[in-house]
Design brief:
Elements (H helix, E strand, L loop, with lengths): L8 H15 L3 H15 L3 H11 L10 E4 L9 H22 L6 E6 L5 H14 L3 E4 L6 H10 L4 E5 L8 E8 L6 E2 L4 H15 L11 E2 L2 H12 L11 E4 L5 H12 L5 E2 L25 H10 L3 E5 L6 E6 L7 E3 L2 H18 L9 E5 L5 H9 L2 E5 L3 H4 L5 E6 L3 E3 L10 H17 L4 H12 L1 E10 L3 H13 L4 E2 L2 E8 L13 E5 L4 E6 L5 E10 L4 H23 L1
Parallel strand pairs: 2-3, 2-4, 3-7, 8-9, 8-10, 13-14, 13-15
Antiparallel strand pairs: 1-5, 4-5, 5-6, 10-11, 11-12, 15-16, 17-22, 18-19, 19-20, 20-21, 21-22
GO molecular function: magnesium ion binding; phosphopentomutase activity
Pfam family, one: PGM_PMM_II
Family: Belongs to the phosphohexose mutase family.
Length: about 575
Amino acid sequence: MLDTTAVDPVSALITTATAWLAQDPDPETRAELRVLLQQAEDRDPAGVAALHARFDERLAFGTAGLRGEIAAGSNRMNRVLVSQAAAGLAAYLLEQVDQVRPGGIPSVVIGYDGRRNSHVFATDTASIMAGAGIRAILLPRLLPTPVLAFAVRHLAASAGVMVTASHNPPNDNGYKVYLGDANDGSQIVSPDDVAIARQIQRVADTQLVPDLPRAAYETAPESVVQAYVDATAALAPAPTAQVNTVYTALHGVGWDTTRRVLDAAGFDLPTLVDAQIAPDSAFPTVAFPNPEEPGAMDLAYQTAREAGAELIIANDPDADRLAIAIPDAAAAEGYRRLSGNEVGNILGWRAAEIAAQAPGDGGANGTLACSIVSSPALKAVADEYGLDFADTLTGFKWVSRAPGIIFGFEEALGYLVNPGTVRDKDGISAAVALLSLASELKAAGSTLAEHLDAFAEKFGYFASGQISVRVTDLGEIDRVMARLRESPPALIGSSRVDHIDDLSGGFNGLPPSDVLRIVLTDGSRVMVRPSGTEPKLKVYLDTSSAVGTLAERTETASAALADLDRGMRALIG
């Protein structure tokens, strides 16, 4: 007999969406949801599909916090989701402080960038945190992510929240969480992310957003920003030569703080890419506000050609990443953007030199760290200078936690040059360190291009490449990873595989991660992993040569890289 009491799936979906609508304080997402509800009630397939996309899942809170498209629904970024996250994080902080200081009051500092809804998400967070009994401190205005990371330690806060989606598409936003105290202001990792997510889900299941207590919060004084400026400017000695530089903020929030730092450090201010210097959440001049993306730096190249610039500095929209370009007559634009590995390697060399010159027992001390998918060259630097080396899982939540770290980087344009004050990637302090290096080289009659050659002559020539395969079916990534595990290759291109490290169960102290590290008998390396933020399979290729002249080293490593690239493309289809 037919069960006539079964609930129509569309009706159940409408009930879920209607309940969400009832607690949504945002007029824009409420209006959007009303339209979709009416379409679903009319059984319009498009409306039903849109509701499914927004409500079948919940935007997961993890080690990257939250990040997604701004829209209505549990699987999107909006004021309901952010309010639940704030209340859940507050409950977690109260629980943690009660375990060590019963009756203690935890604190949180909150920052926000220039993206759509960043300010309202930040103020919602501050008022809900305060209502829960947390000391909530909002930064005084829109500011770069590194300032928030700095403020967590500077204010001795229990936690920090940064509202940003970094270099994501214009309609995205996100919610990045840092922890103070024993975490030294680093981003959250497991098991804290799981515990926070559990509290957020409890709030979502048991409380309505309009019923969450709210209270007045503090606003941090400008002296917090000035303290970041002073600490960052102190990274560079007085410049010995001024470098003709172009700067772009890519419509983000980096310029005002960068200007203050450069001025305090004694550098001439750069020529600006005027069309990209002011914060603009629409990112009108770029298809994708990421300096790694094709076309993103075209206006910077044009400005640099007009100014005869010796250096281009670009920050991503929240200024936690740094891109560098140098003159190159062989490039169509007249400039070549350095890879994240190239910048990381020479900044790591600079850090090692500074460590070697520091007063002490006559040797360099500290740790150079990079993510496992970044160039192996940093280990060569550490070995040469007698420093410790740590490779970590991808993400600065891991890089920043390397014991004794004095410098860290990841190939995706992230650099940590000032771990004493900021335990996260920082595109402004990295720009100061790089500009200081360029100034020293210019005073000595050299250039960054020549310095890269000097690196290859001292440590070997390291070539890196990447294959990124976007998929529409996420199952395809799982199938490729399973195939590589079940039928491991004996050859990649013409190079024989020596061994494969499967990090899925953890490896040499690294937490479990869906990563395969393939080591070839010639010393080359291939890393394969799913992207953590996009529907992509990512493959990282690294080769090197320390034999022969610079030209011979370059040719050998480049030929090996091309062979690996062909071999991996054939393997993954």
